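Quick one - inputs below.
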Amino acid sequence: MHRLRNKRILLGITGGIAAYKSAELVRALTGAGCDVRVVMTAGAQEFITPLTLQALSGNPVHHSLLDPEAEAGMGHIELAKWADFILIAPASANFISRLATGAADDLLTTLTLASVAPMAIAPAMNQAMWLDAATQANINTVQQVKALQIWGPDEGQQACGDVGPGRMIEPLALAQTLAQQFENKALSGKTVLITAGPTREAIDPVRYISNHSSGKMGFALATAAQEAGAQVILIAGPVNLNTPDRVKRVNVQSAQEMLSAVESHLTLCDIFIGAAAVADYRPSDVATQKIKKHNDDMSIHLVKNPDIIAHVAAKQDKPFTVGFAAETQDVLRYARGKLENKKLDMIIANDVSNQEIGFNSDDNAIVIIDAKSETVFPQATKYHLAQQIIQTISHKL
Ligand code: PMT
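Output:
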């Protein structure tokens, strides 16, 4: 089921007594970490209310093609493009026949035509309706023309008292079949916590101490980890970058804020990557008003900031902990020192004296160091190197 994490599932519900089981299906999918959007036909709403499914999915339920409010939120074409997979459960005989003809006369049929996402239907109907030649011909058509998968139906006692094929597959089994549709990736089922960017340490309401980190390296890592199947939480200092797709972002300013954001997201985290350039010191006192320039010189007393990554690595049930070492000289020796002193599992050394790499550039050049090895990765984009780092980490787990 972990393969379902972060997946976008569009669940279509059509009219039939099995519609009540869709509530359980939505719970199973959201419980497995899916983002679920429910689309109901008019018939489905006779059996279960949109409100129930909205509460369970945590998202508004879509049911009308001509609803300006819903279209303003997420239009039907946008919804069709959003889905990683479309599952229609239950799929009634009537809906399957409309699917077979290419009808686009309500929201759900229109979505199935407009989407290129893989699709499956879980038929549910009276056994005689299922065995009828017309239904079987429609099933054939949707299978061959639309390359749909047909999941079920099960055989057994039916709500109407008949016995035979036509029962919708049980929700948990549907969720498991859905999980099998997604490939197992290097970090499937893992949660990765990443810090990125600089921290800002306030001097007074308008001034601060900071550094040149742009956040690009950390954001590239978040993208690569998400693409490798992980659930990613990105604790970002003040940077001007868009949040990578499907990544949870928490914005912070200071090192102390970064530490408390890390602390509150650390449970259940499998991998921690500290790519942030955390200010080592902060002013001991922050002036409440803008400091005036009365004297020719002034001094600011600084105190040490908490070492976030050392704090993480000191935990008894610590995640696989990866640091960065930003050095301007004797790069490998200092990096190895940080690996050992901070008790990290791995450290990524980068030479930040070179303007073309390191701080604020699109490229970097790194050495991945652990207790036993040093592997050099020459200059490349931060995204490319992030992919290499994520691959290397996945082999160590
Ligand atoms: O953001 P970009 O512009 O893309 O630039 C990328 C980068 C150069 C910032 C990045 O590749 C990098 O090297 N990040 C770490 C920078 C740094 O602070 O290095 P350090 O050697 O001072 O710290 C060693 C490790 O301890 C780092 O993982 C750091 O996040 C962590 N640390 C440091 C101090 C502190 N108080 N708490 C920490 O967690």
